[in-house]
Specification:
heterodimer; A: mainly beta; globular; B: mainly beta; seven-stranded mixed beta sheet; 11 strands
Chain lengths: 111, 114
């Protein structure tokens, strides 16, 4: 089920942009890239998703490469409250309804 | 609009007892999902339910585990004859009838089997 590869951990200075990469080289044409995060002891939180165009919302930006084999989640101004495990998930809009959470990237925002 | 409500937040059971975990989805949501997270691991899908129907239980252990989502009331994840390996955080998520696939998760129930 592991369709994505993410670094195990990353650090980011508070106030700087956090750029979290994700490789999904086997993504198919009808599959979206979703990002969730899990702050310690809480349930996962939806962040953003996209198909092929870059997306932005109030939480983050998602940059998807033209070949769609990789993407980057950008938190423009990281705060201490952004410290969490970030999961990149590939899923089809018409396929299985369950999410496959890999090991994610543990982002630590440093004061 | 209250989010997904799970209770209890913490549950301690002795080996061999039953554990009942409850999940009230967000208002207007009729799809419920249960996930289990073992210590230091990612979440693993267990079961997907709609009102009165189990849609996908491919992640449920074959024995001792059952789930329901009745017409009225919360969804229940039931674990019979608990063992130490059942100790985990159990998360419920819900989504609306037209599944926009932006599930909202609850805060989880942490089950400890002693």
């Amino acid at each position: 089920d592991a369709k994505t590869t993410q670094p195990t951990s990353m650090d980011c200075a508070e106030g700087r942009a956090a750029n979290l990469p994700c490789n999904h080289s086997t993504i198919s044409g009808n599959e979206y890239v979703y990002w969730y995060r899990q702050i310690h002891s809480q349930g996962p939180q939806y962040i953003i998703h996209g198909l092929k165009n870059n997306e932005t919302n109030e939480m983050a930006s998602l940059i998807i490469t033209e070949d769609r084999k990789s993407s980057t989640l950008i938190l423009p101004h990281a705060t201490l409250r952004d410290t969490a495990v970030y999961y990149c998930i590939v899923r089809s809009k018409t396929g299985a309804n369950n999410l496959f959470f890999g090991t994610g990237t543990r982002l630590t925002v440093i004061p | 609009n209250a989010g997904v409500m799970q209770n209890p937040r913490h549950l301690v059971r002795r080996r061999g007892q039953e554990a009942r975990l409850r999940c009230s989805p967000m208002k207007g949501h009729s799809h419920v999902y249960w996930y289990r997270q073992l210590p230091e691991e990612g979440l693993k899908f267990m079961v997907y339910l709609q009102k009165e129907n189990i849609i996908d239980e491919s992640g449920m252990p074959k024995e001792r585990f059952s789930a329901e989502f009745p017409k009225e009331g919360p969804s229940i994840l039931r674990i019979q004859q608990v063992v130490r390996g059942d100790s985990a955080a159990y998360f419920c998520a819900s989504s609306p009838p037209v599944n926009d696939q932006k599930e909202t998760f609850g805060s989880g129930t942490r089950l400890t089997v002693v």
